[in-house]
Amino acid sequence: MEVSNYWYFLSGLTLLSALMVVLSKNPIHSVLYLVFTFFCISGHYVLLNAQFLMAVNIIVYAGAIMVLFLFVIMMFDLKKNIPDSKTNLTKLAGTVVAGSVLVILVAAFRTIQYPTPDESTFNPNNGMVENLGKVLYSEYLLPFELVTVLFFVAMVGSVMLGKREVGDRNF
Amino acid sequence: MTPVIALSLFGIINLFLGFTFKRQSLQVVTLLFIICSMALTAMDWNHEYLWFGDMMKTNNLSINFSLIIQLAGLLVVAFSNGFGKDEVYTQPAEYYAILLFSLVGALLMVSFQNLIMLFVGLEILSVAMYVLTGSDKRNLRSNEAALKYFLMGSFATGFLLFGIALVYGSTRSLYISGILYNLSHTAPESLPSFLYAGIILMGIGLLFKISAAPFHFWTPDVYEGAPTIFTMFMSTVVKTAGFAAIYHILDVTFGGFQKNWIITVYFITIITLILGNISAAYQQSAKRMLAFSSISHAGYMLLTVCANQPSTSSNILYYSLAYTLATAVSFAVLMVVAEYQTGRTEKPENFDALNGLAKNNPSLAFAFTVALLSLAGIPLTAGFWGKFFVFTDMFNKNLTYPIIIAVLMSAVGIYYYFKGIISVYFNSGEIEKIETSFLFKIALWSACIGTLVLGIYPTLLKSIF
Amino acid sequence: MEPTNTLFMAKAVIILVVFAITLGVAAYSTYFERKIAAFMQDRVGPDRAGPFGILQPLADAVKMFMKEDFIPSHANKWLFIMGPCLSMLTALMTSAVIPFGDTVTVAGVTFDLQGIDVNIGILWVFGIVSLGVYGILIGGWASNNKYALLGGIRAASQNISYELAMGLSIIAILMFSGSLSTKTIVEAQQNGHWNIFYQPLGFIIFIVCAFAECNRTPFDLPECETELIGGYHTEYSSMKLGFYLFAEYINMFISGAVMATLFFGGYDYPGYEFVANKLGETPAAFIGAGALIGKALFFVFVFMWVRWTLPRFRYDQLMNLGWTGLIPLSIYNVLVTGIGILSGQPIIAGIAGFVLLILGLIIYDQLTVKKKIA
């Protein structure tokens, strides 16, 4: 099979599962479809020969973040039917906005000519972990280090907000 | 760059100092830290540097923006009183550390040369603000505000990222210089049309942060729900940094494509002006009024971004400084009065709570008045000249209709700002003498004097900017 | 046949064999678990089916299949079935990247005794392990039972907490090998340069985390019967329950194999060169595969040994150990490893770091004990 066939198959699967995330009524199903979507995206990374990103995508998103999502959603009482809080006007406005964004993007992408890569300079191993590490620690050193500040802020903040206070219950 | 490193380290040191230091001394230490990093910022004056492989560029413009941002941080820390009243439920070391970290983010936003840096800076600033908004965790309104801000803010970040991706896809570079090079070396017809979608999406992401009109729905709730001291920080630092970024993206990077984005931004500007001012006029709560007034001021500043004249950057600087000083003072006075009124009246942040402030607290009342006059744009205050420069830009560009709307809306503005002044001076009410700390007084008076000096000698700073 | 096709066939055979060995080991682990428990408690253990009870796993399997397959009425049916299947799937997938042996030549075809040699091997293991919790979580939720839900939630938080320390202890290994590929990691350890000599602390952290990831005692809080009846598998019966239990034993075997790969030289054994010279590369490689499986089985034994020796943790103790004990320790380990590599004396640095840590702990303990008395 051609690589492009794999691509079409994976893309179709990705779109389908992403749609199911939005359409399914049960939040647990939504989360599981979202996990599946991440797997499909990881598949795209494999097609791009970016194996490190594929593994990290699975570990971080499917393995950690979505587990926490599931964790929280499982605590909800799903049997209680919460009435739809959105009015018809909001729904209409949302549809119009999303629809026009879709039309614009489709129109924009329809006409472009993708440049073919220059075979003399193209390096198929660009996505490998060795190359990625080199780029991260040379060209992108500053943002890479500053991301630590971002995580540190998030960490300090969550500890501060989540810490048990005087007078709070234990559980 | 040195202030970025210094502030990150100071933030970490601050967390450690929290173990041993008392509240008031933490405040002093934090002030010293910010002054130190301001000195480090100013040391690069008149030099132009590129840092770490073109990731950041510091020049006089970015230094000016950095100084204004750090000045705002300085004022907020000075007004904070060390969070001393609430011994059990406040964690000053964490608050100050997060403030310092968020200043790092703001500094990145004013001096980025790579879109990745813009994203990282914006996220550092935003995450810090989400946390601080929810820091009053026993207050339901604060929790609601934090959640609202977080959800909407992450949505806006998504827009920004999508825009960056589209811009990268069409220009094959994340560096501002690379984008400019590729844009100028490609025929406009052969540029992919999703570049324009990318510009607009990036614009949406940034306009959200400065709360321009169709993306302003979070502002009143978040400003009202957050503890006042952090509302002050939000409305000064985030706005200044956001405008620096917007100027950098729309005017510097994509200034050549003005015809593609100008109509959208015009539309947004005019809606922002009208909605911000008209809604502010209806508010009973002074804090909410200030929130809407911050929306309307975003509209005025957007006007000069639309005009895109050579003087635009200096106008944004001047307006940011004037707005920062005035807003900080008005929030500070509101904060101490609300603190005093808590338990005495039902809604301590309403205009009614300010009634009769002038009788026993003439200095607070005077400072509040000066700040509101400056926000309204009355002559002899900094706010007047800020608006004046903006309108001059518009005249130079021959944009008549927006000016008419802006002037009309300034008139509406005078109405609601004077509501505050009237309740302070002319309405009767019982407010005893409110004790404030020494640092609070210094900050209040220096901000007031700054407003007046800038109002009387606007050329003083205009020559530097 | 074309070379690619022969290679494909060879790989398919390897995967099948690994599959069979894993399942067989898992089946007999149940038998040995009971035998070891019996030995430790001075009993006889299963001895009815066949000589020494050797056919016991078969009898168990028949029992499992014959039981009524029951699905609770308010359970989410599809997810209820999916839970054990996911557990089994993720348990089996990890073995794909473990190098069971060096290059062998059979019938003129040369290939590695390894499912796939990807350059992110260890991340693959890590990714699949992090997915392992889905089976438990989904099964626990779909049962529509509070105990099962609590079990699932415990499993999720436990896995996420211990993954961090596990990843950090692997980082120290990666600093030595400079590669994520399991094959390269094993090749760097040939001729007795096993990582355990360089990384004693890293190994201890890793094995503790492995216990927690496999939900084995003393970390078997998700199925702690004194508190949660059966935990996440309270509502399961028949072969669905069998799948869960099977997945646990498979996980034990695979994590033993991973530990052997990372810390104990993989398929390396003393006298490898000698055997290779006498008998040729291929038999030596097959003996190596046997050595790896032997090491893995030893770790399975350790798992059981610990299970019948130690009592269970309390849940807050478990979280404390993970977040405030193991994570700082593994960061310390990364630091020591860095010093070792920079100074050029990795063994001395590794052991000195370990000794220093123990000394520090003893001194700290002494100081606090004195304080408590005074």
From TrEMBL, chain A:
InterPro entries xrefs: NADH_UbQ/plastoQ_OxRdtase_su6, Nuo/plastoQ_OxRdtase_6_NuoJ
Transmembrane segments: 6-24, 31-48, 54-76, 88-109, 140-161
Catalytic reactions on record: a quinone + NADH + 5 H(+)(in) = a quinol + NAD(+) + 4 H(+)(out)
Keywords annotated in UniProt: Cell membrane, Membrane, NAD, Quinone, Transmembrane, Transmembrane helix
EC number: 7.1.1.-
Keyword Membrane applies: yes
Entry GO CC: plasma membrane
Keyword hit for NAD: yes
Subcellular location: Cell membrane
Domain of life from the UniProt record: Bacteria
Membrane protein topology class: Multi-pass membrane protein
Family of this protein: Belongs to the complex I subunit 6 family.
Function of the molecule: NDH-1 shuttles electrons from NADH, via FMN and iron-sulfur (Fe-S) centers, to quinones in the respiratory chain. Couples the redox reaction to proton translocation (for every two electrons transferred, four hydrogen ions are translocated across the cytoplasmic membrane), and thus conserves the redox energy in a proton gradient.
Name of the protein: NADH-quinone oxidoreductase subunit J
Native species: Sandaracinomonas limnophila
Lineage: Bacteria, Pseudomonadati, Bacteroidota, Cytophagia, Cytophagales
TrEMBL record, chain B:
Keywords from the UniProt entry: Cell membrane, Membrane, NAD, Quinone, Translocase, Transmembrane, Transmembrane helix, Transport
The EC number(s) this enzyme carries: 7.1.1.-
Transmembrane segments: 28-45, 65-83, 95-128, 149-170, 190-208, 229-249, 261-282, 289-310, 316-338, 364-386, 398-418, 438-460
Chemical reaction(s) catalysed: a quinone + NADH + 5 H(+)(in) = a quinol + NAD(+) + 4 H(+)(out)
Function as written in the Swiss-Prot or TrEMBL entry: NDH-1 shuttles electrons from NADH, via FMN and iron-sulfur (Fe-S) centers, to quinones in the respiratory chain. The immediate electron acceptor for the enzyme in this species is believed to be a menaquinone. Couples the redox reaction to proton translocation (for every two electrons transferred, four hydrogen ions are translocated across the cytoplasmic membrane), and thus conserves the redox energy in a proton gradient.
Known partners and oligomeric status: NDH-1 is composed of 14 different subunits. Subunits NuoA, H, J, K, L, M, N constitute the membrane sector of the complex.
Name this protein carries in UniProt: NADH-quinone oxidoreductase subunit N
Annotated organism of origin: Sandaracinomonas limnophila
Upper classification of the organism: Bacteria, Pseudomonadati, Bacteroidota, Cytophagia, Cytophagales
Gene that produces this protein: nuoN
From TrEMBL, chain C:
GO biological process: aerobic respiration
Subunit structure: NDH-1 is composed of 14 different subunits. Subunits NuoA, H, J, K, L, M, N constitute the membrane sector of the complex.
Keyword Cell inner membrane annotated: no
NCBIfam families membership: PRK06076.1-2
UniProt main location, coarse: membrane
Membrane topology of this protein: Multi-pass membrane protein
Transmembrane segments: 12-31, 78-101, 121-142, 162-180, 192-212, 241-264, 284-306, 318-341, 347-364
Any Gene Ontology CC annotation: plasma membrane
Organism: Sandaracinomonas limnophila
Official protein name in the record: NADH-quinone oxidoreductase subunit H
Pfam family, one: NADHdh
Catalytic activity: a quinone + NADH + 5 H(+)(in) = a quinol + NAD(+) + 4 H(+)(out)
Physiological role: NDH-1 shuttles electrons from NADH, via FMN and iron-sulfur (Fe-S) centers, to quinones in the respiratory chain. The immediate electron acceptor for the enzyme in this species is believed to be ubiquinone. Couples the redox reaction to proton translocation (for every two electrons transferred, four hydrogen ions are translocated across the cytoplasmic membrane), and thus conserves the redox energy in a proton gradient. This subunit may bind ubiquinone.
Localisation: Cell membrane; Membrane
Molecular function terms, GO-annotated: NADH dehydrogenase activity; oxidoreductase activity, acting on NAD(P)H, quinone or similar compound as acceptor; quinone binding
Keywords annotated in UniProt: Cell membrane, Membrane, NAD, Oxidoreductase, Quinone, Translocase, Transmembrane, Transmembrane helix, Ubiquinone
Family matches, as PROSITE patterns: COMPLEX1_ND1_1, COMPLEX1_ND1_2
Similarity comment: Belongs to the complex I subunit 1 family.
EC code: 7.1.1.-
Gene transcribed to yield this protein: nuoH
